[in-house]
Structures
1.
Amino acid sequence: MKFITVENYEKLSKMTSDIIGAQVILKPDCVLGLATGSSPLGAYASLAEKCEKGELDFSGVRSVNLDEYVGLDITNDQSYRYFMNKNLFEKINIKLENTHVPNGCASDLKKEGEEYDALISALGGIDIQLLGIGLDGHIGFNEPDDVFVKETHTVKLDESTIEANSRFFASKDDVPREAITMGMMSIMQAKKIVLIANGKSKKDILNKAFFGEITPRVPASILQLHPDVTVIYSEN
Ligand code: F6R
């Protein structure tokens, strides 16, 4: 594992976009595993800028996102599909049909999970997975649990996650209580993983996740077993 500390969020974003950009250059039909939340916004803006300048070509790239809230569809501006379209996909030349986000409105969420895992396999797995980390150690929406769940599955969000994510909603009551998330198998099978975190509030959980015990109570700790993880952290 490489743990890189940078001065500020701008540098974190630039480094992240350089790594993802290099992947796109090296393998123009690569599969990008993507995340939402506030951490990747700077990297997505930087990737859009590189595409605009003609430095990157996403026309052959495929993508799979980590997660989606249950019950929110593309028309809801808090859905992760909406977030991805607005913050990245509409700003680069990726084909929308090559982008995938779990469907949180599927009538059968178990089947949706199975189909999502089958889709990731059919794409040949993930070349590079971008992750953020929750204050409780979640990656995707794999919340602290007694076990690491392998498959894409539905989860009840932890109180701390609902609290943290309420900043994006009109009120805490509006935050969905459930989400569908990629499981640990697809994440751990990604060829390369980049986890980004910024702000002092993430320091403790990063220490637990990367230097503490490997336990499903700290879901990100499983990444200690992955052969190619880069953590990029900025305190400011
Ligand atoms: C989002 C996701 C989450 C976030 C995490 C950190 O797709 O998978 O695990 O990465 O909640 O969120 P931010 O970046 O907002 O601190």
2.
Amino acid sequence: MSNQMKALVKARPEPGLWMEHRPVPEIGPDDVLIRVRKTGICGTDIHIWNWDEWAQKTVPVGLIVGHEFAGEIVDMGRQVDGLSIGQRVSGEGHLIGKTSRQSRAGKFHLDPATRGIGVNEPGAFAEYLRLPAFNVVPLPDAIDDEIGAILDPLGNAVHTALSFDLVGEDVLVTGAGPIGIMAASVARHVGARRVVITDLNDDRLALAAQVADVVTVNPKRQSLAEIVSHLGMKEGFDVGLEMSGSQVALDQMVEALVMGGRIALLGIPPGKSPVDWSRIVFKAITIKGVYGREIFETWYKMIAMLENGLDVRAVITHRMPADAFRDGFETMRAGSSGKIVLDWT
Ligand code: ZN
């Protein structure tokens, strides 16, 4: 192994990312070194590429970006056990602290000291990644590298979809980006009766229909009230999964829910936005914010479902060598693609 590697770096404080040579990371006693094979481009990476306000105040210049990956363990620190060289793995990109109340209670995903690889710490868009062994998730044979590379966003989808019991329920998903589409697919897999997904972009709706057995609705052409009566739902949807960050979508969701309906919110609004709280109070709606993945319960459930027939592969619409990353980012920025997987081998 040469001690240099290719890595995609936020090399300058301006829009763009740059492929550079960096030293292969050195590992500590509790870390593993992973030879990265495939990575997924995330909406977060687009913010970093664009160098928007959030990225400027969060991401240090010079950082290796990327957090969605699959690869193979090629080196391990001396304290690591239970893993082996040559093992195929993905992993949780949130590096947690161990001292907060929530962390001490075993609710690792709620640790306020969490740092993200590819956002605060060196990331996975590189030939090699250092990761604490604690964060490693071994991949069974049933999960190949490209699915392994999208377990992070699939985990967001699974965490959101499993926030509430969906068995026999009618579910509304607002936002047909890759995570919304995968959440709709998970909702079907776990036994929701009807799943409706909305988006203003017809390309995304077409992709949703390809990936999952769902009813697609473009609110520009059809109201949710029409759909509710057309599908024979008595009083509306039981559960809403808000994946778009759109205030309009959230309002429409609240209107379309039954009394006592439940909403899981993963979409991030662009800033502060007005909410019709009295409507939410009078409809007795429960709202849950969703962040990341439960460590490691979401991973366990997600892998079990993939082994048991959950199929989200069609959400990957583009595959390309890492050196063609510019094409990948341009395609993502155009806004109609599904997941884009980069190959680092
Ligand atoms: Zn991501």
